[in-house]
Design a protein that fits this description.
The complex is a heterodimer of chains A (about 80) and B (about 325). By secondary structure, chain A is an all-alpha fold. Chain A is about 65% helix and about 0% strand. Chain A contains 5 helices and no strands. In chain A, helix 1 packs across helix 3 and helix 1 crosses helix 5. Chain A is globular, with a radius of gyration of 12 Å. Chain B has 2 domains: about 120 residues, RNA polymerase II/Efflux pump adaptor protein, barrel-sandwich hybrid domain (OB fold (Dihydrolipoamide Acetyltransferase, E2P), Beta Barrel), CATH 2.40.50; about 200 residues, Chloramphenicol Acetyltransferase (2-Layer Sandwich), CATH 3.30.559.10. Chain B has 7 helices and 21 strands. In chain B, the strands form 5 sheets. In chain B, strands 10, 13, 16, 18, 19, 20 and 21 form a 7-stranded mixed beta sheet that branches. In chain B, a hairpin with a 5-residue loop joins strand 14 and strand 15. Chain B is elongated and about 75 Å long. Chain B starts with a strand and ends in a 6-residue tail after the last helix. The chains are: A mainly alpha (about 80), B alpha+beta (about 325).
């Protein structure tokens, strides 16, 4: 799946999980949690919604490696590609 | 017998609450556990359940009125032989009309309330502290396999799975699960697992998953998610706020490796989850990277001692490293 498409889906999800966060203001290559007020439970929600919308499961063992949005989008995009 | 239904204390040194809405009318029949009113505290609107079954005779407090803790809200007619679960005072204590009618809601803020409760805990409870580093490699690979097969809604969350391990370990360690009141410790047969949940504005509440020992891991997982959501929506039940028998505090993934909690009275133990991370693990004379978590225990020396606490942490470690048992 195109990275831009994943980013669009992610923007929708952020809007639902953390409506107070300005998604477009997030720096894609800096650690997400340093920039926005979302906690581990919000982050799980984001992962769960990604699974619902794109059908990609992010394993727990990978979560700690996905620190910024760019890493998350790369991972989802590659996994969604494998599914096809 | 007439019975006064009173403003419950919803923990953390709450002095008063505002009656938002009655869910009952005079003449109604009430059953134990039924939600009868909504009360606003400093942080949340809480559904208040009746601890007795009976008939509503009179509603004493008006909607919008601020009522001090333990002051009457309503009069019920109940059977004599009902066992009181908790809360409530008998009819023979006089209603204090003057104190009941505080003109406006002047609740202490939650920070102050937490401060009071924790200061009391530190003054009264002789805490002892232990830490155990627990390998999560087996649990992680078990979770990865499980979650790959589960639907998104049923995805198992690590904190919920770890809490479930604690719940199972508590079965062998009643000294960690119960209430210490008036110089006496009473272990609880139920594990009402309190869990510290951060609100969006930085405050913390500690509602409990009731009777968690009866739940399967998927039921516990759902109950955990439901509790977080309801805490943030401000829709908790009073029993969830006052009947916790043990607490877990999770510092999350934001950087601290260990957290040593302060016991939440009248409980006698709090277990802390540090940050889950990869560390160098030495096994069979080899060093390899592996997932670990530092589990801590703060417990009450009036009820248990360090040796027992250490065995308890060891038991949790065993459960975590035998994921099929969860």
């Amino acid at each position: 799946m195109e990275k831009d498409k994943v980013k669009e889906v992610l923007k929708d999800i952020f809007h639902q999980v953390a409506p107070e966060v300005a998604f477009d203001g997030i720096n894609m290559s800096l650690p997400l949690r340093d920039q926005v007020e979302i906690d581990s439970f919000d982050f799980y929600n984001i992962i769960v919604m990604l699974q619902k919308k794109i059908n990609v499961v992010v394993p727990d063992s990978k979560l700690s490696e996905l620190k910024n949005l760019s890493q998350l989008i790369d991972f989802i995009s590659a996994k969604a590609g494998e599914l096809k | 017998m007439k019975y006064e239904f009173t403003m419950p204390s919803l923990g953390a040194e709450m002095d008063e609450g505002k009656l938002m809405q009655w869910k009952i009318h005079p003449g109604d029949t009430v059953t134990k556990g039924q939600v009868v009113a909504q009360v606003e505290t400093t942080k949340a609107v809480v559904d208040i359940e009746s601890f007795r079954s009976g008939k509503v005779l009179e509603l004493l407090a008006k909607e919008g009125e601020v009522v001090a803790v333990n002051h009457p809200l309503a009069i019920f007619e109940i059977d004599e032989d009902q066992e009181i679960v908790t809360g409530g005072i008998k009819m023979d204590s006089p209603a204090k009309e003057a104190e009941k009618n505080t003109p406006e809601f002047q609740g202490v803020n939650l920070r102050e309330a937490i401060g009071k409760a924790m200061a009391r805990s530190k003054k009264e409870i002789p805490h002892y502290y232990l830490k155990r580093r627990v390998s999560l490699d087996l649990l992680m690979s078990w979770l990865d396999k499980k979650n790959a097969l589960l639907s998104a809604e049923d995805r198992l969350l690590i904190p919920a799975v770890l809490q479930r391990a604690i719940c199972l370990a508590l079965a062998k360690y009643p000294e960690m699960n119960g209430h210490y009141r008036d110089g006496k410790y009473v272990p609880s047969s139920d594990v009402n697992m309190g869990t510290a949940i951060a609100l969006k504005d930085g405050a913390v509440m500690v509602p409990a998953i009731m009777q968690s020992q009866k739940m399967s891991h998927s039921e516990f997982n759902r109950a955990y998610q439901d509790l977080v959501v309801r805490t943030r929506q401000g829709s908790l039940k009073n029993s969830e706020l006052i009947e916790g028998t043990v607490t877990v505090t999770n510092i999350g993934d934001l950087g601290s490796d260990e957290v040593y909690g302060i016991i939440f009275p009248p409980q006698v133990a709090i277990i802390g989850f540090g940050r889950i991370r990869k560390e160098a693990i030495v096994a069979d004379e080899q060093t390899r990277p592996g997932f670990v978590i530092d589990l801590t225990l703060s417990a009450d020396h009036r009820v248990s001692d360090g040796l027992l606490g250490a065995r308890f942490l060891n038991e949790i470690d065993k459960k975590v490293n035998d994921p099929e048992s969860l």
